[in-house]
Structure formats: structure tokens, C-alpha cells
Write a structure and sequence with these properties.
The complex is a heterodimer of chains A (about 180) and B (about 425).
Chain A (H helix, E strand, L loop, with lengths): L1 H21 L3 H21 L3 H26 L13 H21 L18 H6 L2 H14 L3 H23 L1
Helix pairs in contact in A: 1-2, 2-3
Chain B lengths: L1 H5 L1 H15 L5 H39 L15 H11 L10 H10 L1 H6 L18 H10 L2 H10 L3 H32 L4 H6 L19 H4 L1 H14 L11 H4 L9 H26 L17 H8 L1 H22 L5 H30 L5 H29 L23
The chains are: A mainly alpha (about 180), B mainly alpha (about 425).
Chain lengths: ~180, ~425
């Protein structure tokens, strides 16, 4: 059952990714990207990382892809048919190839053993119903919160300052 | 409805019995899980669908009364069959796809508009046991799903190849993305006090009845509307903007841009947008009721409920009734907004969000954080209540003083509450 679900989700993610690079309209590419993000969120659910899955939907599907769509709408002639092709494919191949190579190397060399107890990370084996009623996922949120406030405190504070600056910047721009 | 839930385990038995005859043994467990999920989903959709039909009737009736009209009164007693006549009409209309439209983006937009409004009901607790999925991250799940509603709106606006549709979609996205910030920020204070993201536990922390699975009594034990009144107002306004109801219905302002992003849709495709609007309204009302009005908790303070007896049983056992009353009340508040408030201009809408709601919700978060830390050793509902009421009153006073000062100095020409003669007149009641 889990294998089957993983297969479907992986196919969805990869197929949508393929759609991103093959469709001829930038707007449709962006829509494929959204579907690909949804597939990744589904894989997080299978891994028992419910919090991460919900955050993925909230941040990537609900916010980042909307920004992408918005940027496309503001910068392109929307009523015109377009065929986004240019002569940069050599450069694009080099950049994409090296990024993929780096990620694949990291993925292959990392030891994927769980770094915290399985109970805390949520459960993958039982059905969602029992996981929800026993509140196991809740301790995952707690564990993430604790590690953010202890181990990664500096990074957390820096990120929050950056976000605050962005908010104030938006307000300043809105005032002009 | 609560009867249905008590039947749930019996239904599970019967389903297992049925499937055992059809499926191989290894698949029966999976089959039962899927079957029960389907049954739950069907029950929710049926209830919400009927709720939606009568929400349209209620809206016409209420706004009619507010405007000194009678509202629908011809088909059935009090016009009660009007929603069904509407359904028949909408199903028999001609189905049109404009020649220049991007056909699959256009059609898919009308289909995908529904799931974001519907899936959120999975974490709505109709009573302490009547909840489809009591996710540990339930609150976050609801807002994550709701935030995806932007994408089908974008698809509809872009796929239609119509300037008005595109303008409507742009307005919708700018509005939804902006108002998401105060909407979620205003909830952080509540989450600080509750210490949980599960919907059921959140309701359980607001009253005498603990949620199933909670250990002992959970503080603060008071509805969050009393502890966080400012957060409630911010949340209600931001939610009105999120579901695009008047006065925040600029994306479909019919006096300016025809019908916004669904200008080009007809028949049942338009029906989908109409359905999604009402589903989102009911979902927003239900979630607001759960977060701020105590959800399935009895609507009476704990010290007024007798120790035992038939009244006590009725108060504690009819959570679904309290939840329904609170939800319908909030739906009526949304309709009341629509009946009384004129539509905002686009710049007023943005200024109101970024200049008032966002700073106020940040200030509220700061005050809540400080107080929650200071009050932790006291730990009694009354101490919480007193301290938060005083703090919120002070915060409200400072805000009103700042707004007045701002208006007197006239530092910003586009002040939000200043109704200018050229402002668009409201188009109340014409949107159906």
C-alpha cells in the first residue's frame, strides 16, 4: 500500500516536473510546478512528517508559486501567444547538470538513519487515524520547536530579523 | 448527527463483514480504512451542501429584510424551495467555452476552485467526537488548504483571456496574499495560550469539557474571544477578505469589472464558483467558531451549569447543536457585513491591511506573549480573563488614538476610513 502510494506520488512529482520544462507557455509551466510541489508534500506525508507536509503546502503551493505566477503576469504580455525559446541552452544544461550532480552526490553519500527517535518523528507504519488520535504528530511539532529554539537559535533569530525587514519594507513601499 | 457517530463503530463492523466476502484477506484492513473515509467524506459533503443551499436562501432573506424588502417568498413556504429552482436553472444553462480561452486551464480552474473550500472541513469538529481527521497540525492544515484557493482563481482569470477576468484575478491574488498575514498572525496569540495545533484540543482548552485524549483540565478555560478580542476582530476582518465577501469583494466588483475572474463562466461552471464562495463562507464561520467561540463547548459559563441532572447532560452532550448555532451565527455576521458595508477601493483595501491590521496584530502578539509568560504561575481562568481584558482595552485605546492622530495630521492622503465622494458606490445584492 505504501509502496503503491509512493510510486503514484513520485510519478506525479516527476511527471509534473517534466511538464514544467516541456510546456510552451510560461504560465502553464508554473501550474505544472505547483502540481510538482503538491507531489512532494504527499511524499512528506508518507514519511510521517505531517508538519513538514503542511508547511510545504502553505509555503510552496500557497505562497511561492503564487509569487511566481504573479511575477509572470506582471512581466509578460499575457494576451499574446508565446514560445519561450532562446539560445541559452548550453549554459542552462551546465547549471542544471551541476546542481543535479551535487544533489545526487549528497543524496548518495548521506547516511539516512533517523537522527531522533522514531516516535518523535511521527509514525509511518500505522494508519493516519491512530497516529492522529494518539497525538504522535504533535510531538514532532514540539521537537521541531525545541530544536529551533536551542540548537538553531542563531539561524532562527537571523531569519526572523530578515522576515521583519521584509515586512517593514513592504509597508514602506505601500506608504509611497 | 451525533447518533450517526455512535453508529460509526457498528458501521465499521458491517463494512468489514461486507468486504471480507469480496476482497482477499490482506486487503480488508485497507478497504475498511478507505471505505470509512469515503463514508465520512460523503456525510460531510451532504451536510455542507444542504447548508450551502440554505445559506443562499438565508442571505437573500436577511439582506432583503435589511433593505426593507421581503426577499424570496414565491416558491414553497417562505421561498424555501428557491435554492432548488436555482439549481435546476443553473444546470440547464448553456455551457460555453470562449473561443480564445486556453481551454484546459479555463475548465480546470472551474473544477479546482472547489477542493480548497471543501477539504478544510476535514479538520472541522462538529462535536468532540464528530471530526473527520483530528490532525495534530489541524489548524495549520486548514490555512494551508485555504491558501491554495489562489491558484484556481489565477487559472480562471488567465485562462479566460479576458481583460476583466485578468484584473479580477490580479485583485484577488493581491488581496488574498496580503490578508493572509494578519489572519495568521492574529492566531499566533491564541496558539501561545492553547499550546496546541489540533482543532479538537484547541476547542477543549476553552471550556469545561476537555477534548478526548487530553490529560486533565487545560487552561485557560475561557473562550478566546474574551482573552483575545482584538485578535478576533483582526481575524474576522482578514477572513472576510480571504473569502472575498463584501466589503472586500473587489475581485468580482460588478460595477467595475463585470464579475472579475469568473466573468466568462456560465451554467454549472459559474455554479462551481458560487458553490465555492458559500463553502468557504461556512468553513470560515466554522473555524472562527472553533478558534474564538468555543466550538462544541456549551454556550454558558461552567459555574452556571448544575452539577448533575437533565440540563447538565443536555449541555454537555449536544456539542453538535452548539457548534451549529455558533457557525450559523457567524455566517449571519458575514451576511450582515454584506448588507451594510460599502465596498472598499483597491488602495484602501491594501492600506487597511498593511498599515493597520499587520502592525496591530504584531502588537497584539507581543502583548499576548508577555502576559502569557507573566500569568503562567497564576494559572486561573479569572486571572487570565482580567489581565487580558485590561491589556486589550489599553491596546485598543492606543490604536484608536494613533489612528485619530494620523487622520488629524493628514500625513497620508489615502486614509482608509475617509470616504471620498468619488469612491465606488456599493453594489449590494446584485451579485447573484
Amino acid at each position: 500500500m505504501e509502496q503503491l502510494a509512493f510510486g503514484v506520488l513520485a510519478l506525479l512529482t516527476l511527471g509534473a516536473g517534466f511538464g514544467v520544462i516541456t510546456s510552451r507557455t510560461v504560465f502553464v509551466s508554473a501550474l505544472w510546478l505547483v502540481l510538482s510541489f503538491v507531489g512532494v508534500a504527499g511524499i512528506y506525508v508518507l514519511l510521517g512528517a505531517h508538519f513538514l507536509a503542511v508547511t510545504q503546502v502553505l509555503v510552496y503551493v500557497g505562497a511561492i508559486s503564487v509569487l511566481v505566477l504573479f511575477a509572470i503576469m506582471l512581466t509578460r504580455d499575457l494576451m499574446a501567444e508565446e514560445h519561450p525559446q532562446n539560445k541559452q541552452w548550453v549554459l542552462a544544461t551546465i547549471v542544471a547538470g551541476s546542481v543535479f550532480g551535487t544533489l545526487a552526490t549528497i543524496g548518495y553519500t548521506t547516511d539516512w538513519a533517523l537522527t531522533w527517535p522514531r516516535g518523535a518523528a511521527g509514525v509511518a507504519s500505522t494508519s493516519t487515524e491512530t497516529a492522529a488520535s494518539s497525538g504522535l504528530g504533535s510531538s514532532a511539532v514540539e521537537a521541531i520547536g525545541r530544536s529551533l529554539m536551542s540548537e538553531h537559535l542563531l539561524a532562527f533569530e537571523v531569519v526572523s530579523v530578515v522576515l521583519l525587514v521584509a515586512l517593514i519594507g513592504a509597508i514602506v513601499i505601500a506608504r509611497d | 448527527m451525533s447518533m450517526l457517530l455512535q453508529e460509526s463503530s457498528a458501521m465499521r463492523e458491517r463494512l468489514m463483514h461486507l468486504l471480507a466476502g469480496v476482497l482477499p484477506e490482506a486487503w480488508v484492513g485497507t478497504g475498511v480504512v478507505i471505505g470509512m473515509s469515503l463514508l465520512k467524506a460523503t456525510a460531510i459533503v451532504l451536510v455542507i451542501q444542504i447548508g450551502m443551499l440554505y445559506a443562499t436562501w438565508l442571505e437573500r432573506k436577511l439582506i432583503g429584510r435589511m433593505q426593507d424588502r421581503l426577499g424570496p417568498n414565491r416558491i414553497g413556504k417562505f421561498g424555501l424551495l428557491v435554492p432548488f429552482a436555482d439549481m435546476i436553472k443553473i444546470l440547464t444553462k448553456e455551457d460555453i467555452t470562449p473561443r480564445d480561452a486556453h481551454s484546459w486551464v479555463y475548465n480546470l480552474g472551474a473544477i479546482l476552485i472547489l477542493p480548497p473550500a471543501l477539504v478544510g472541513f476535514a479538520v472541522v469538529a462538529f462535536s468532540s467526537t464528530l471530526i473527520a481527521a483530528d490532525l495534530s497540525v489541524g489548524l495549520l492544515f486548514f490555512f494551508a488548504i485555504a491558501s491554495t484557493a489562489v491558484i484556481p482563481i489565477f487559472m480562471a482569470g488567465w485562462g479566460s483571456r479576458n481583460k476583466f477576468a485578468l484584473i479580477g484575478a490580479m485583485r484577488a491574488v493581491a488581496q488574498i496574499v496580503s490578508y493572509e498575514i494578519p489572519q495568521v498572525l492574529s492566531l499566533v496569540g491564541v496558539l501561545l495560550l492553547a499550546g496546541t495545533l489540533s482543532m479538537n484540543q484547541l476547542v477543549g482548552s476553552q471550556g469545561p469539557l476537555p477534548a478526548p485524549g487530553a490529560e486533565g483540565a487545560v487552561l485557560p478555560g475561557v473562550w478566546y474571544i474574551f482573552l483575545q478580542p482584538i485578535a478576533f476582530v483582526i481575524f474576522l476582518l482578514a477572513t472576510t477578505a480571504e473569502i472575498e465577501r463584501t466589503p472586500f469583494d473587489l475581485p468580482e466588483a460588478e460595477s467595475e469589472i463585470i464579475a472579475g475572474y469568473h466573468t466568462e463562466y456560465s451554467g454549472i461552471k459559474f455554479g462551481m464558483f458560487y458553490l465555492a464562495l458559500y463553502f468557504a463562507t461556512i468553513a470560515a464561520a466554522a473555524v472562527t467558531a472553533m478558534i474564538f467561540l468555543g466550538g462544541w463547548q456549551p454556550p454558558v459559563p461552567a459555574f452556571l451549569i448544575p452539577e448533575s441532572g437533565p440540563i447538565t447532560d443536555f449541555m454537555y452532550n449536544s456539542g453538535w447543536l452548539w457548534m451549529t448555532i455558533k457557525t450559523v451565527f457567524l455566517v449571519m455576521v458575514f451576511m450582515w457585513f454584506r448588507g451594510t458595508l460599502p465596498r472598499l477601493r483597491a488602495d484602501q483595501m491594501m492600506a487597511f491591511c498593511w498599515k493597520i491590521l499587520v502592525p496591530l496584530s504584531l502588537a497584539n502578539l507581543l502583548v499576548t506573549g508577555l502576559l502569557a509568560n507573566l500569568l503562567a504561575p497564576l494559572a486561573s481562568p479569572m486571572a487570565y480573563l482580567g489581565a487580558f481584558v485590561v491589556a486589550n482595552a489599553i491596546l485598543l485605546g492606543i490604536t484608536l488614538w494613533a489612528v485619530r492622530r494620523w487622520r488629524e495630521r493628514g500625513s497620508s492622503g489615502d486614509f482608509v476610513f475617509e470616504v471620498q465622494p468619488a469612491a465606488a458606490p456599493s453594489g449590494v445584492g446584485g451579485g447573484d
